[in-house]
Design goal:
Length: 144
């Protein structure tokens, strides 16, 4: 039986139309909710990624909950790959140890992500989940 994870205290650190960053002090987890990338260019998304990296560095977080479930995009695969490569390279320079990613409901987009992941060196553990509860459990109770 899964243990319920408390997320009662969630401090919003940053919010705009692309991302919401929250810090959960009771679990020392940084939570990033991503909105649809639909109307945004790769440059705007990279700027949002930089804000995530700065927040990770400032809070010295080792655990990241990345909610990509709401992402829908018609961004060309090449641009999407560039965004993912950029994200992995810059967050890999932080203290990050574990990333729990809530997957999208778009199987084609997920296929692009999995294909890319095969060719990337990840200096942190990354697991995909369909629910926040599962992701929070992994981040909270299965620490090194």
């Amino acid at each position: 039986m899964p243990v319920e994870v408390s997320t009662s205290f969630k401090m919003i650190v940053y919010q705009n139309s692309l991302i919401t960053i929250a810090y959960m002090a009771d679990t020392d987890i940084l939570s990033v909710d991503l909105a649809s990338f639909e109307p945004y260019a790769a440059l705007e998304i990279k700027e949002a990624i930089q804000i995530v990296v700065e927040t990770l560095s400032n809070y010295k977080n080792k655990y990241l909950l990345l909610d990509a479930s709401k992402i829908s995009t018609t961004m060309p695969d090449a641009d999407y790959r560039e965004v993912i490569n950029h994200f992995v390279s810059v967050i890999g320079q932080t203290n990050l140890q574990k990333v729990a990613r809530i997957i999208t409901s778009d199987p084609l987009r997920e296929e692009v992500v999995y294909t890319m992941r095969e060719n990337l060196f990840l200096p942190f553990q990354l697991h995909d989940f369909v629910s926040k509860d599962e992701a929070m459990h992994w981040l909270t109770f299965e620490r090194n």
